[in-house]
Amino acid sequence: MMSKRIDLRGEICPYPMMKTVQALKKLGKEERELVVVIDHAPALETIPTQAERLGFSVEIKETGSPEWQITLTRK
Amino acid sequence: MQAQSGSLLPPASALNLGGPRAVRGALALAAAVAVYYFAAGNEVRMGTFWVLGLAFGFALQRSRFCFASAFRDIFLLRHGRTLKGVLVGLAVAAVGFSTLMARQVPNTALGVLPPDANVLPMGLHTIVGGVLFGFGMVIAGGCVSGSIYRMGEGYVASWVSFFGIILGVLGAAYTWNWWWEFQIEDGLRLWLPNLLGHGGALALTLAALAGLFVLTLWWESRAGVVVPDAPFQAEEEANFAARLRNLFKRIFVHGWTPLLGGAVLGGLNVVSFITERPWGFTGELSRWSIGISNSLGFGPGILKGVDALPGCTLELGDNGVLHFMLFLVLGMIYGSFLAAYFSGEFKIRIPKQRIRFVQAGGGGLIMGYGAGIAMGCTIGAFFSAIASLAVNGWVFAIFLAIGAWLGTQAIQRIP
């Protein structure tokens, strides 16, 4: 399974969400998964909403304080 | 939807106050107490406003209450999660303000205005200021209050925005006398109770807020967007200690909903008005940059009419360094820092792209100029103005929304 990873730590609002949406739209047909690393807490609400809209399931893992890894998988 | 990995830091780690973290936390709290005694020793009001600032900063951070996102997300994401919180906060503040103003001005038929309420002259400056402010806050990624609480969370870009805002209000000061003669001096100051009485003005304001709330629900359902509140991971409330831990977690670790944040901020705004004046701080920021530039000899000089205007109108800054409003601003930054620190959300965040610093500083400059001529930001000219039952708050809000829409178009074109 191919998977892509983007590191959006340090980004200001609302770019974590916007860049994730851009990356999801650019994902090739054979790519099933996108992993996003963020440290902007408000994006924990906006990224899942937008990802679900685009047909991706969401898994959030807290990997630091405060850092999260969001795995978005094509449904 | 939310998976936590056991081996890595779970959110509850923030409450495991053991070791150096507990020592640092205790020192941070002790510093807040020390500043209180220093401030209150100078003047009682300074101490009070330090505590109020801490409370505002704490509530802003806990609910991540961002006015920029309230206006922006209606367009960008087509949901009004934060906007609904703002509307609730306005309703709470309007009820409190109205009670207070009814005592200050018992007879509304005389056409007298309550001296400290944010009833401001309207004109082109309200429109231009609103559009510039709305545009600037979206470009910068936060309005003035948003930048202040994110400074406490460790966002370096927000410190740049803050610096931009301070310079922006100084820029507004250089053009103030022109705006004064052109628009502000003869601008209409419309206070709803003068037209409708206290009861009528409050009823109309609450009805308008309720109507906007329903309109937001309709807009969200049309777009089909659901933004659920993050689930609260409670432990089983088996005994008193567990219940207490859950309560602590809800307040200090788990993020507050925007509705709760709005209600608390609205309530704190009433406390601020009871103590001295409605919540607002761009006037104080202008006091810093105008004061410094005046003392260095390149200041804007005399600003016509500012002494007679309430709210966040520009201030000359000729009254020394210490001022109770200084403690409000510093308290907000520090209150947000404490909230972020104890919830494990503090982190120094530095954007990787240089353009973000340009956006933060430039957006701040634009916001600062807009707030300078409109006599307030999303707090002074909007949150505290609508609650003052003043028409200028609504006018500013409309143009704020237009500016935010323009800003939303712009940020989608910046990589």
Topology, pairings included?
The complex is a heterodimer of chains A (75) and B (415).
Chain A: E1 2-7, H1 15-26, E2 31-38, H2 43-53, E3 56-64, E4 67-74
Parallel strand pairs in A: 1-2
Antiparallel strand pairs in A: 2-4, 3-4
Helix pairs in contact in A: 1-2
Chain B: H1 20-42, H2 44-62, H3 67-76, H4 81-104, H5 124-140, H6 144-153, H7 156-184, H8 192-223, H9 240-252, H10 258-275, H11 282-295, H12 324-342, H13 354-374, H14 378-387, H15 391-411
Helix pairs in contact in B: 1-2, 1-12, 2-6, 2-10, 2-12, 3-4, 3-15, 4-8, 4-10, 4-14, 5-13, 5-15, 6-7, 6-12, 7-11, 7-13, 14-15
Approximately how much beta-strand content do the residues of chain B carry?
A: under 5%
Low-confidence stretches of chain B: 1-14
Number of strands of chain A: 4
Q: What's the story with the biggest beta sheet of chain A?
A: 4 strands, mixed
Q: What is the approximate shape of chain A? A: globular
Helix content of chain A: 25-40%
The general outline of chain B is: globular
- Alpha-beta content class of chain A: alpha+beta
Summed up, the helix count of chain A is 2
* Number of strand segments of chain B: 0
* Average pLDDT level of chain B: 92
Radius of gyration of chain A: 11 Å
Q: Which segments of chain A are poorly predicted (pLDDT under 50) over 5 or more consecutive residues? A: none
Report how far the terminal alpha carbons of chain A are from each other: 14 Å
Average pLDDT score of chain A: 91
Question: Which series of helices and strands of chain B comes N to C?
Answer: HHHHHHHHHHHHHHH
